[in-house]
Design goal:
Layout lengths: L15 H17 L5 H4 L13 H17 L7 E6 L5 E2 L14 H12 L6 E7 L2 E4 L2 E2 L2 E2 L1 E7 L3 H11 L10 E5 L4 H11 L6 E4 L7 E3 L3 H11 L8 E4 L1 E4 L2 E4 L1 H4 L8 H9 L3 H12 L1
Parallel strand pairs: 4-9
Antiparallel strand pairs: 1-7, 1-8, 2-6, 3-7, 3-11, 4-5, 9-10, 12-13
Helix pairs in contact: 1-7, 4-5
The structure holds zinc ion.
The site of zinc ion has 8 residues, from helix 3.
Length: 291
């Protein structure tokens, strides 16, 4: 894998014309709300405005994350995709108040700490806090804030144990905790990875509560409501990371993991990653060499 090779597995990734339209619509919404809108209006790939509501910046950060995952051959690890719906995280339709902290929410911080305390060799987590403007039969139906995580090296039982210990789950939801093994093809991996950290302002429309939803464009008033719920925040404030760092929009493995995936300088680590050895044995071999 090379930095841009992920793109061929995600041919529909954030089309630039659609992203520019969303950028313009969000800047208009900020202006209507009396908030600073000029940096987003002038935001370009060269000079990102770094606003977490900006579609152009979200595209850039998503693209950097996927490029980093490809560069580090992380698509060849075994992953679980996790969706967590905590109790009390749904904002009712017509509610304009700000949800509050996103990735710095105590529940998220405690969950990540819990995973780290489990000392799982090779553990890597990335994901986000997100929400969606839901409609059923074209009527507003609430905005469920929730968490998506991609987790490498932990078993489904370990993930279930960590979440159940920390997060009070939404009993109203049919499936407040969903843990799925990500398939083994690059398409499976990049689809799941791009789903774990999406654009910030989304709308899903259903014909009935239990039916499958379709993504739609937000109307101007819906966009303003969602912006107020999310609040103005920096471009990395929804992003949950463990084992990975993000500095000024650039991703890298944290020091303890980078030695295990340091390709180029050490061909054997590359082979080990591609070879699909069990996580523990790969980690132990590499750790043994490092120590
Ligand atoms: Zn921007």
């Amino acid at each position: 894998m090379t930095r841009s090779s992920w793109r061929r597995h995600l041919p529909d990734f954030d089309p630039i014309s659609k992203i520019k339209r969303q950028q313009r619509e969000t800047a208009n919404a900020l202006r209507m709300l009396g908030l600073d809108h000029l940096p987003m209006r002038e935001c370009s790939g060269v000079e990102p405005c770094r606003n977490g509501l900006c579609a152009r910046c979200a595209r850039q950060l998503r693209s950097h994350l996927l490029g980093f995952l490809a560069d580090e051959y992380l698509d060849q690890q075994h992953w679980h995709f996790v969706t967590i719906r905590p109790e009390g995280w749904t904002m009712p339709a017509g509610e304009f108040r700000q949800f509050g902290l996103l990735r710095d929410h105590p529940l998220v911080e405690n969950l990540v700490k819990r995973f780290r305390r489990m000392v799982i060799p090779g553990l890597i987590i990335f994901g986000s806090v997100e929400t969606v403007y839901n409609t059923v039969s074209n009527r507003p139906a609430g905005k469920p804030f929730h968490i998506h995580l991609m987790v490498a090296a932990a078993s489904a039982a370990q993930i279930n144990g960590a979440v159940q210990a920390i997060v009070p789950l939404n009993g109203q939801d049919v499936k407040p905790l969903d843990i799925r093994r990500v398939g083994s093809t690059p398409e499976d991996f990049y689809e799941a990875a791009s789903y774990a950290f999406k654009q910030p302002l989304l709308k899903k429309s259903r014909v009935a509560p239990a039916s499958f939803g379709v993504m739609q464009s937000l109307k101007a008033a819906e966009r303003r409501e969602l912006i107020q719920n999310l609040g103005v925040h920096g471009w990395t404030r929804r992003l949950i990371l463990s084992g990975i760092r993000c500095d000024s929009g650039r991703f890298r493995l944290t020091a303890n993991l980078s030695a295990t995936t340091n390709r180029g300088e050490n061909p054997s680590s590359h082979q080990l990653l591609s070879g699909g050895l069990p996580q523990a044995s790969r980690h132990n071999q590499l750790r043994g060499r490092r120590e």
